[in-house]
Amino acid sequence: MTVLVTGGAGYIGMHTVAELVAHGEPVVVVDDLSTGHWPAGLFDVPFYSLDIQDGEAVGTVMARHGVDAVVHFAAKSLVGESVRDPLLYYERNVAATAQLLRAMVRQGVRRMVFSSTAAVYGHPGRVPIQEDDPKQPVNPYGETKLAIERMLRWGGDAYGISAISLRYFNAAGAHPELPIGEDHRPETHLIPILMQVALGQREAVTIFGSDYDTPDGTCVRDYIHVMDLASAHRLALERLRRVDAGVEVYNLGTGSGHSVLEVVRVARSVTGHPIPVAFGPRRAGDPAVLVASPARAQAVLGWRPRYTGMEDMVSTAWRWHKSHPEGFGTAGGP
Ligand SMILES: NC(=O)c1ccc[n+]([C@@H]2O[C@H](COP(=O)([O-])OP(=O)(O)OC[C@H]3O[C@@H](n4cnc5c(N)ncnc54)[C@H](O)[C@@H]3O)[C@@H](O)[C@H]2O)c1
Ligand SMILES: O=c1ccn([C@@H]2O[C@H](COP(=O)(O)OP(=O)(O)O[C@H]3O[C@H](CO)[C@H](O)[C@H](O)[C@H]3O)[C@@H](O)[C@H]2O)c(=O)[nH]1
């Protein structure tokens, strides 16, 4: 009973590997290192530098390690890039996942936990957002994640695959003990950019829009700690093994929103750096407010986020960035 983690060298994937290993779960990682980093010697788990589009090679890994479930993080996930090059997202997200599912079917592996996103909702009609609210993605990234959710639904019927799709809101923070954290290149996410300003690596942060219909005019997001995302994956795996779940979806957020300016204020207080801001135009495709209703994940998975305060998110991120100003450095494969 081994779990195959695709994209396990990425930000959320690596924290989930840590969580699974800490709970005694045998894990094998497949990652092509296109955006990830695999620090040599940190985890005692088999690592394969493979593209999931190579279904045959991934199938061989499944057979060799007795894989019974897949946690599927591997994807392209930059909204702006997806608008500039949508075909890349159809290839690397939709087509690649079809290859992965084909390999699973061939190997008789019938459980998947899938990384979905709040971007499937587009501009929400109401907040907090519930799972059954309308899905109207406003960029190819969200569109391809929704397409995969639908592929899982059809695949569930046709091949007997049970899947849990976890729609994360804004992942944030870092492991409180292990030397792992967020290292995207280029970095586009708010909190790591604030940390880079505090480290003196950037002059200032540009706030995208100050005229939104929100209390302080800046966008409101539901930030969820990466450790809490990791625990949700473990609980989802447990559920897939316990019951024939069919295909289920869950929002993962705290249920509380924080404006960009609020996050900046917390970052100033945690780092002790003034973090200068500049106000710029709105970023295309940014909804004003995205806040999850996490009620379903709490009721069905028994999920309880532990790091719910913005200070928890920023201080664990700061610990990582301060001790690893160059991120994983040049760490490539093992
Ligand atoms: N970061 C967020 O706030 C957020 C929010 C919602 C959803 N998600 C989703 O969560 C998942 C992980 O996000 P992340 O922030 O950790 O991203 P990441 O880029 O850090 O991780 C993705 C990993 O997948 C690997 N990968 C990509 N394509 C691959 C392929 N074809 N074959 C093998 N490996 C491949 C990359 O090398 C990387 O290690 C993604 O699916 C993303 O869409 C992230
Ligand atoms: O330099 C920056 C970076 C971000 N922001 C703002 O900060 C907020 C958070 O932005 P991030 O880029 O950190 O995160 P997103 O909300 O754009 O994206 C996240 O949530 C999305 C779902 O809506 C997707 O799932 C995506 O993968 C995930 O990273 C947004 O209002 C954004 O406009 C700034 O003002 N300046």
Automatic annotation (TrEMBL):
The keyword NAD applies. InterPro entries: Epimerase_deHydtase, NAD(P)-bd_dom_sf, UDP_G4E. The keyword NAD applies. Its cofactor is NAD(+). Pathway: Carbohydrate metabolism; galactose metabolism. Its EC number is 5.1.3.2. Keywords: Carbohydrate metabolism, Galactose metabolism, Isomerase, NAD. It holds the Pfam family Epimerase. This is UDP-glucose 4-epimerase.
